[in-house]
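WARN no homologs supplied; continuing
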Amino acid sequence: MGNAVILLEIMNNLEEYISKTKSAVTKLFEAYNSYWELMYSPERPSFHFWGDPESEENKKAYEEWRKENNSILELRAQRDNEFAFEYFARSTLLGTVLQFGFWGIEKFSKNETVAKGFEDIIDANSKALKFCIGRTYENIPIGLIIYAGRNQSTHFDDKKYRKVTARVFEKLTNYYSPTFKKWYKSDYFDLENPNVINYSENITHILGWRSYSIYEKDLIEMLQY
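OK structure emitted
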């Protein structure tokens, strides 16, 4: 991180930071999106039927359809497995995107207002104060979501996370449905989920960060004073 810190020190404004990091972040998104080619080709075939799926007629039609599409179905299953296998690689790429967002906020944010719901753990001397900015998702400023996502990605092997990071993930994990009038728990952000190591893909999904343009738009809106 040493060279990165030196580069940050000589970048004097947000425009310069975006300009000098654009190619790197763009390539990270391109690399991430290239994995999705595994899901697009070959196109997944679908079987259509009428009436009772357990009827002899539909069972026979399904067997015939499966024989006709066997090679495509096998290749599709292979690529599905390849895509699932690359989950950590994809998350690592997006964790680096979060790192670039983190650096930009850390360097150029002038925020002095604590976000609602974090008053008890963020004060005037807290590093997280700079990150209480941006549009909100589930009443959490996306600056704090970037902060927590980057920290989890960087320290994914830690047994315990710092208070702000833990609070953000707790809020994302537990959500209330006004439709069903009850609380739910999401495995996508539950830090106790043994099946997820790096949450960067899930974090950037709710940010909408699947292209450079959205990433840049958010940075500018958060940091242009």
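Residues 2-35+88-223 form one domain.
OK
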